[in-house]
Amino acid sequence: MKIGFIGLGNMGSPMVKNLIKNGHKLIINDIVKSLTEPLIALGAEAKTSVTEVVKSEGLEIVITMLPASIHVKEVYLGENGILKNIPKGICLIDSSTIDPRTTRDIAKKSVSQGNPMLDAPVSGGTVGAQSGTLTFMVGGDEKNFNMVKPILSFMGKNIVYCGPSGNGQVAKVANNMLLGISMIGTAEAMSLGVSMGMDPKVLAQIINSSSGKCWSSEIYNPYPGVVTNAPASKNYTGGFGTDLMIKDLGLATEAAKQVNQPVTMAATALKLYKDLSAQ
Question: pLDDT at position 220, please?
Fold first, then answer.
């Protein structure tokens, strides 16, 4: 299958690699041109613009993985963006993490012009992207979900249908809100134990076989040397950036305001991440 892919950062690049590895032809684009070079070496074809990607002959699906709502709006709704240049019938999948309202607005425009669209944000971090074990939370028409599920399965292990358009983003916002909170708790617990004389690996082993176990403690433990592939064991390089978590917690707190739902812990976590970023 010929697939367009726009956005080749820490998540997008390994997702593209897994699609290539499974025999698909990738047409790629990113504003940072150097990100395309390793993928070209693997067989991808790079284009200099979004317009060129979506006008590629034989294109069947376009996937986007972008940092924030402002970038998604520009790529989809801009004069040189997807919706003003793509032929009818090509399915669109946005795996960015953005607010549900923006997702639903863009999907409505896309569907009205004849392009099925799904929101499919992911969980699993860069490790999950590299190993092809991501969780996809998908919103949109269920018929279209069933059509693209085999493609998503080359990049992820858990492909979950969440309901109508925007519900994938709702699931992601709630999930990442909890992740942001639990990562702070895990960091504090690990630091407390080590400062009182515990070996970090032993402490992590106890936590991960007890009631404190969570993804942050088991897969992405924030204490150096506990999990080999976690960013903490690589001098905190790669992984999920602090400012991206600020973005996600901001999405959560804003969504909570819209439905008048208190999120006290999320608000506290957001302040802590903002303080860390400022430092």
Answer: 92
The mean pLDDT of 62-88, rounded to a whole number, is 96
> SS3 for the chain, per residue?
CEEEEECCCCCHHHHHHHHHHCCCEEEEECCCHHHHHHHHHCCCEECCCHHHHHCCCCCCEEEECCCCHHHHHHHHHCCCCCCCCCCCCCEEEECCCCCHHHHHHHHHHHHHCCCCEEECCEECHHHHHHHCCEEEEEECCHHHHHHHHHHHCCCEEEEEEEECCCHHHHHHHHHHHHHHHHHHHHHHHHHHHHHCCCCHHHHHHHHCCCCCCCHHHHCCCCCCCCCCCCHHHHCCCCCCCHHHHHHHHHHHHHHHHHCCCCCHHHHHHHHHHHHHHHC
Options 17, 47, 172, 247, the catalytic residue: 172
- Is 172 a catalytic site residue? yes
Global pTM?
0.88
pLDDT tens profile 90-133: 999 999 999 999 999 999 999 999 999 999 999 988 889 999 99
pLDDT value at residue 126: 84
- Residue 134: per-residue pLDDT: 97
